[in-house]
Design a protein that fits this description.
The chain folds into two domains: 2-267, 3-Layer(aba) Sandwich (Aminopeptidase), CATH 3.40.630; 274-340, OB fold (Dihydrolipoamide Acetyltransferase, E2P) (Beta Barrel). It is built from eight helices and 16 strands. The protein has helices at 2-17, 20-26, 76-91, 107-112, 136-151, 189-197, 213-221, 245-255; strands at 35-38, 44-49, 52-56, 63-69, 99-104, 158-167, 176-179, 202-205, 224-232, 269-278, 285-286, 297-298, 303-307, 310-313, 319-322, 333-340. It has a 13-stranded mixed sheet with strand order 1-2-3-5-4-6-9-7-8-10-16-15-12, sandwiched between helices. A three-stranded antiparallel sheet has the order 11-13-14, with no helix packed on it. The longest helix has 16 residues, at 2-17. It is globular, with a radius of gyration of 20 Å. Residues 64-255 form the Succinylglutamate desuccinylase/Aspartoacylase catalytic domain.
């Protein structure tokens, strides 16, 4: 009885004080059962597990939207942004007219203020969490997958998944998104323009399967899914939230089924992923400074990295670097290179 009452009190914190983030940081551990409450307009909120909230209007529109953040626990701006959206829904300031699933990803890492605890959670999806010895991050990734699977339980509906991040380094292009590999499906011009309305005007087209969260939703459920980078990592409370205002407004419009902002396509810059460089030796090192900004460009033939006896060089045309990280685990991606591309017949 006491345990049941405690869980109800925890749930009441969310609905009375409108703060999913505070509740999650106070109680990051897994919950034993969901808790639900209905808002005055009939919208049902279900706290599925720690940091996982389903929001379902009485008469939803045609879209199922997943907003995930905190897959890396120290990427706080997207967490605060999504928390603000949840607060607005609970207070009645924002009316939710689409089915919405909110996920604060790596709750233990969020509490510690670290990128991860034992692993890079954004390499644990599409079943990768089942490989090797289990740990809490693998269990959490499996839970995130399952709640998305349960959420996308109705056919014939539009599916969207925006996995929100911030980067650990400076970037010559502050906001950008990775569009996962989608064999047999064209890239969506509408989605590229939607992201531009979020202030995200740079798109990277991936051409191979990965174990990222956005690829999971795209590949398994046909969702329009993206890994969205919104800026640079800062601790909780130190983000300049005005920099994310365009994103907040666009996501609010999407959630409320209001007309969306679609800037001209010419405003967006699209890159093809050229090289995916995985780390195979402990002595892996870059030839450039470790603090080099994302999208720094190098001319043809430039040595980018040394991995054992293997040299990684720029090919026949100039390439820009994205996500360089020599400290990743063996077998994981240490670098992407990208080249500009045209919006052509691969898009519709």
């Amino acid at each position: 009885m006491a345990a049941t009452r405690k869980k109800q009190l925890e749930c009441d914190v969310l609905f009375e004080h409108q703060d999913l983030l505070a509740l999650t940081l106070a109680h990051p551990q897994p919950r034993k059962q969901p808790q639900s409450r209905t808002l005055k307009d009939g919208t049902r909120l279900t706290l599925i597990d720690s940091g996982i909230l389903a929001i379902e209007p009485l008469r939803p529109g045609d879209s199922d939207i997943v907003l995930s953040c905190g897959v890396h626990g120290n990427e706080t701006a997207p967490i605060e942004l999504v928390n603000d959206l949840v607060n607005a829904i609970i207070s009645g300031e924002l009316v939710c007219r689409q089915r919405l699933l909110v996920q604060l990803g790596n709750t233990e890492a969020m509490v510690k203020g670290t990128r991860g605890v034992q692993e890079n959670m954004n390499r644990l999806f599409s079943g990768a969490h089942a490989r090797g010895e289990s740990n809490p991050e693998k269990a959490r990734a499996a839970l995130l997958e399952q709640t998305v699977r349960d959420f996308y339980n109705q056919s014939g509906r539009k599916r969207f998944h925006y996995d929100l991040h911030t980067a650990i380094r400076d970037s010559q292009r502050e906001k950008f998104a990775v569009y996962p590999y989608r064999p047999g499906r064209a890239w969506s011009i509408e989605q590229i323009r939607f992201l531009a309305g979020c202030g995200v005007e740079t798109i990277l087209l991936s051409h191979s399967p990965t174990t990222t969260y956005s690829y999971y939703s795209s590949n398994e459920f046909g969702a329009d899914a993206f890994t969205v980078e919104l800026g640079k990592v800062y601790p909780f409370g130190q983000n300049e939230m005005s920099r994310f205002e365009a994103c907040r407004k666009q996501l609010s419009r999407l959630i409320a089924a209001q007309p969306l902002e679609y800037p001209p396509l010419a405003q967006s810059v699209v890159f093809d992923v050229c090289q995916v460089v995985n780390k195979h030796h402990e002595g892996f090192r870059f030839s450039f400074d470790d603090a080099q900004a994302n999208f720094s460009e190098y001319p043809p033939g430039t040595l980018l990295a040394q991995d054992g006896d293997t040299e990684v060089r720029v090919g026949a045309v100039a390439e820009s670097i994205v996500f360089p990280n020599a400290k990743v685990a063996l077998g994981q991606r240490a670098l992407l290179t990208v080249v500009p591309t045209a919006i052509d017949d691969r898009f519709e």
